[in-house]
Amino acid sequence: MRRKNIYWAFGIVWVCLLLFMQWGIKADASSGSRNEFNLGPKKEGEAILFVYHYKLNDFTGRYEHKWGDGAAYVTEKLSIFELVVNKPAGYEVAFMKFDGVSTLYGDRARIVMLTDHRIDVYMRPAPKYQQMVYYYKIQKNGGRKLFSSRSEMVSRGSYFRVPFITPPIGWHVAYGYHYGTIFQEGYGYTVGGDNVLEIYMDVNRNYVDFHLEKEGGQLGRQTLYYDSEQKVKLKEPEQQKPGYQFMGWKGEVFGREVFYPKDEPVMAPYSDDGHVIDLYPVWEKEFENLYVEYNGNGVAYKSVAYGFAEQCKLAEEQTYDFSFEEEGKLLGWSFWPGKKETDYLIGETVDAIELFEKAKKLGAYKRRGKDVTISFYVVRDNAPKILVYPAYISLAEAQEGKITKEYLCSLIKIRDEDDAIVPTLEGYEETLFINGKDKDVLTLTVVAKDSRENVSKEEWTVFLVGAGGKHGRREGRIRFISKEYMGTLAENSVWRKDSVLQEELLRCVNECREL
Amino acid sequence: MLGFMCFLMFVVGVMSMLTVDAKYSRKNELEVAMMSAMKYAMEGVLEERIQTDEELERSFQNSLRRQITSKSELSVDMVECDVKDGILSAKVKETFTYPTGKQGELTVNKTIIVDREHRE
């Protein structure tokens, strides 16, 4: 009720005000006459000023006036006047000044005539427009592809500031490219013609800095490109910690402790471009106990357990009994059987960590839980092997002094895989041969010594045989025989008559024939 | 192209000749050495310098190996070695390398006896 009264009061006051204003208006006797005052065009800066005084035809009329005229129009108060400026060719309305105070933009104005008004219309040459084409491109994995493009018209001669687009999440604007000029945000220039602008966007990067220790220097850096779909593997530390196994990286990402296990791909965290993450390696001991197993000649001995930081003293020759069939000097230990080169010498002292690292590099270790066993194999220098057979020496040659030490040595064969051995003879005396008699049996000792002082000895029997021999001579004639010549045997040959011998001979020639 | 083919044929020809010659030479050497060693050993039997089968075998092998001077590996397989009966039969295999690098192998078989009259 009370609100309704307020409305009534407001309406009455408004009506009274209108009546009062009507009372003040006089009918213009000179209606239709033209009071023209043309100030004419004048220049103000680059803009050309035209002043118009418009005259309305009727109360709510629309007055269109031709370019170049100043005009005045008289109408009643409170009538509505609409001004539409006809722009001359090549010009446009810069702005209009209403009563020299208010600025109106556009090429038309609608005002209520309260009193005499003056409208100044400022014109300027219409600019020529140029097309600006923007290509927003994204760069990824070395390639570029179009993200979006747009074009707009910009007046020639105006100063133009290139707008940068808002990039998608995880991306940033890297740079722009304008006819050979690489620019950043805020770049602008005076437009002189059609322009093609390329703006490149890069995916945000996280820099992962690897450190060996908290206070240590930087090991390296890896760039992680933000990609919500793809995970990447973190690098492993190039510098390994002897005796320790790399488990992964730990660090702090945006205030949260993180652990990235080894070989497990991770996703780059979303961040602004250039965010740096510091990571530190997580190490774990490779073993708790290390055992050394010594192998040789089919037997193996396992050592006591060595702790992680302990030193191992490798076995010496007398430490274990290998009872080798073949004598030879023990040179050292090898990770592999049948090797001639030693990896460690006998009795050598070596750090357990160093020993493990070497075995790990060669793949020569066995692991059971936290215990590691490294197998060693003996490396021996083979002793020389002497090959001698009883020798029958002509007595005549012996008595003539032709049987020298060198001659006898030439009848001996030595086999050694490691060295070239020249044998020596013990018990040789030249007089024994010169003064020798038929059927004398001389016993010599052949000695072979290799470069590593391995010595082999062998008894050698030498028979002195006289010419024609005082030995008894068996009856018979020596002859080669084959199956084809079996028929050439004499009728009374033992090989024909004796069935046992015949069978034996037949077997021999047949067996030889088969080959 | 023709020149290259001729050169290739020439090389192949020379290699073939060397191979054939190597085999022939080695076979000859082995046969002569084997016959000589067997004869020497069997003469020892006749002269009673060699009394046991083992001595006979050693004498033969010793003599054979001393006579083979070319680079090769000898493998002696005794078929029969009997001093009492007077028979020595052996198969000798020589392994060697041809000038072309290929492995070669030779086998020579011989049997030697002391032939005598049968008496009742």
Write the layout of secondary structure elements.
The complex is a heterodimer of chains A (515) and B (120).
Chain A: H1 2-24, E1 42-44, E2 47-52, E3 62-65, E4 80-85, E5 91-98, E6 102-104, E7 108-112, E8 119-125, E9 129-140, E10 143-155, E11 159-161, E12 171-178, E13 181-183, E14 188-190, E15 195-203, E16 205-211, E17 218-225, E18 244-253, E19 256-261, E20 275-285, E21 289-296, E22 299-302, E23 306-307, E24 311-313, E25 328-334, E26 344-345, E27 349-351, H2 352-362, E28 365-368, E29 371-382, E30 385-387, E31 391-394, H3 395-399, H4 405-410, E32 413-415, E33 424-426, H5 430-434, E34 441-449, E35 455-465, E36 477-480, H6 494-497, H7 499-514
Parallel strand pairs in A: 3-4, 9-15, 16-20, 21-29, 31-35
Antiparallel strand pairs in A: 1-2, 2-8, 4-7, 5-6, 5-8, 9-10, 11-14, 12-13, 12-15, 16-17, 18-19, 18-20, 21-22, 21-23, 24-27, 25-26, 25-29, 28-29, 30-32, 33-34, 34-35
Chain B: H1 2-46, H2 53-67, E1 73-82, E2 87-97, E3 103-115
Antiparallel strand pairs in B: 1-2, 2-3
Q: In words, what does this structure look like?
A:
The complex is a heterodimer of chains A (515) and B (120). Helices cover 14% and strands 42% of the residues of chain A. In chain A, a hairpin with a 5-residue loop joins strand 34 (441-449) and strand 35. With 515 residues, chain A is mostly beta strands. The model of chain A is unreliable at 24-64 (pLDDT under 50). In chain B, 50% of the residues lie in helices and 28% in strands. The longest helix of chain B is centred in the N-terminal third of the chain and has 45 residues, at 2-46. Chain B is an alpha+beta fold and 120 residues long. The radius of gyration of chain B is 20 Å and the shape is elongated. Chain B has one domain (19-113). Chain A binds chain B through residues 389-392, 411, 413, 463, 465, 469, 471-482, 489-490, 492-498, 501, 504-505, 507-509, 511-513, 515, and chain B through 35, 38-39, 42-49, 55, 58-59, 61-62, 65-66, 79-80, 82, 85-87, 89, 91, 107, 109-118.
